[in-house]
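Exam prep: given the inputs below (a chain plus magnesium ion), describe the expected output before reading on.
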Amino acid sequence: MRDFQNSLKGLYLTMKGMSLYKEGDILLGMYRVIDLIGVGNFGEVYKVEVLKGRYAGQVMALKVARDKTMLPYLWKEAQTHILFNHPHILTMQSYLYKKDRGELFLIYELMDVGNLKHYVAKQGPLEEAEALKVIFQVAKGLEFLHNRGYIHGDIKPENIFGKRVMKSILWKLGDFSLLRVRGYSGIIDIKGTVGYIAPEVFKNQIHRSSDIFSLGCVLYFTLTGKSPFDAEEEQEKLRRNKLVIYTMPEGISPKVQVLLGLMLERDHEKRFKTAKELINYMLAQRLL
Ligand SMILES: Nc1ncnc2c1ncn2[C@@H]1O[C@H](COP(=O)(O)OP(=O)(O)O)[C@@H](O)[C@H]1O
Ligand SMILES: [Mg+2]
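Solution:
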């Protein structure tokens, strides 16, 4: 775990050295950069202070494309995300597109706990009850998407965000840059993260149940600090992920073992079809 923390720190310092903006920069004449808080496959995310307007004085998160090739993804993300309103979905406050300069700014509520990957790296693996709470909350956000015919397409610990509310943490689903509509039949460019991808996605098929598989990987991660398909070599990780080769973590209750087995079912037809089915199962089995 210590190694993992150090490597995260190293990565963070490198990304800070290469980021587009730095502390003190003023963007669009109204956002003052406080710090770089994250870099994903598509964007750089900054903590900013709003200087003018209705939200003056508030601190928010601002995402920009890492480079121009990422713009189409973020543009699609902005247009759909802005329509979502749910307690377990990250709130997007607004977006601004400077067409002439090819710049896009996405503004979100700031999630002060950061992402689930960092949280588990810091705290260590979570107790079963806490892990189930996180998964249940994310499933609620996912249910909102699934009910509307969307597939998230990139469920992983880096895309789940925590916010402190009183003494507990509220978990929300974010990052809709790979959002797809149900029934999507084009070529799937695999931009997800190896270790969290449903096996059928490698065969150019994606369903709402593919999100359930990825969420199963997240449950495994919160309980162990690792993806179920973790391996030293990247090639081996890919092989295990494609073939769904994993071992059940030790010390977890039979009920949670069954749940993990169902979520990580290789055949998507045997998995929960939607987040709603997963939620109903968790409630019926008294997993909360
Ligand atoms: N609203 C937010 N509050 C706090 N941190 C955030 C927020 N949005 C993003 N981040 C951080 O930035 C990282 C990248 O953001 P994300 O939206 O996942 O971008 P990408 O589409 O490039 O993957 C996240 O993993 C997280 O660490
Ligand atoms: Mg991301």
